[in-house]
Design brief:
Blueprint: H1 3-8, H2 15-23, E1 27-29, E2 32-33, E3 47-49, E4 52-53, E5 61-66, H3 88-92, E6 96-97, E7 106-112, H4 115-122, E8 130-137, H5 142-150, E9 163-169, E10 173-180, H6 187-194, E11 199-207, E12 210-211, E13 220-222, H7 225-234, E14 238-239, E15 245-246
Parallel strand pairs: 7-11
Antiparallel strand pairs: 1-2, 1-3, 3-4, 5-7, 5-13, 6-7, 8-10, 8-11, 9-10, 11-12, 14-15
Length: 247
């Protein structure tokens, strides 16, 4: 790919801005200043702007460790949103959250500007598993496990069968892992409430093939090529060489 096209590919800078940066000697390829926009680069080349590495693919994929108290929204005039936790360059590339986590829920939130991939991953037909660690009031038992496995009637819909693994059960409080293949509004909380348990804390450590690992709260990172490939496979899609996708 031409270097000037690579610099402008993401939409973060125009082709003319890329040309000006090149002429100013601000761009290095493999530690050597390159001023020619027609210079061709490969995927293995180290491209830097003012000494800082850049990765200007048109499609962006990252995970965020969402803290409590932050809205999963693109913008809000009265409260902080997950977009406030990301570097400004991602907003310019129109990166948005895939699905949502409640304001008081923590954990893994996938962010991308690949709309088709996001749509596929959120479709109940894809059966993408989301895992939650829940702390609830009261003692969980095998009847709760059976109820989750059968699907719970929540009045407006019956939940798909879900996995419930009890980690600790006490008279006043229990903890459990929940595995869902859908993610409707307040669904985990509503499922527990239907069983007589109130959720007091909720955390999502994984989404499909992605795991949060040791990523600190409020921090984000770009996905690896293997993680992106795993997401495409999960969505039943293939990735083309330009960073986009098709079914």
């Amino acid at each position: 790919m031409r270097l000037d096209k690579y610099l402008a590919l993401s939409g973060e800078r125009t082709r003319s801005e890329a040309t000006r940066l090149l002429k100013a000697g601000a761009v290095e390829v493999n530690c050597a200043i390159v001023r020619d926009g027609a210079f061709h680069i490969s995927e293995t080349d180290d491209v830097r702007l003012y000494g800082q590495p850049i990765s200007d693919q048109s499609m962006q994929y990252l995970m965020l460790h969402k803290p409590a108290g932050i809205l999963t929204a693109a913008r809000d005039s009265r409260a902080s949103t997950v977009m406030d936790l990301l570097p400004e360059r991602y907003a310019r590339r129109k990166v948005l959250p895939v699905g949502r986590l409640d304001k008081d829920t923590t954990g893994l939130l996938l962010m991308t500007n690949d709309g088709e991939l996001a749509h596929r991953l959120l479709s109940p037909k894809r059966h993408v598993v989301k895992t939650y660690l829940a702390t609830v009031t009261g003692r969980l038992d095998e009847d709760d496990v059976t109820a989750f496995r059968a699907g719970i009637d929540l009045n407006d819909f019956v939940s798909m069968p879900a996995g419930l693994t009890i980690l600790a059960a006490g008279e006043d409080e229990s903890t459990a892992m929940v595995e869902l293949k859908e993610g409707k509004f307040h669904q985990v909380k509503r499922m527990f409430l239907a069983r007589g348990h109130e959720v007091t804390a909720l955390h999502r450590p994984s989404f499909g093939p992605l795991t949060l690992g040791d990523l600190p709260q409020s921090e984000s990172r770009e996905l690896t090529s293997d993680e992106i490939a795993a997401l495409y496979a999960c969505a039943g899609m293939t990735q083309n060489t330009k960073g986009g996708s098709h079914g």
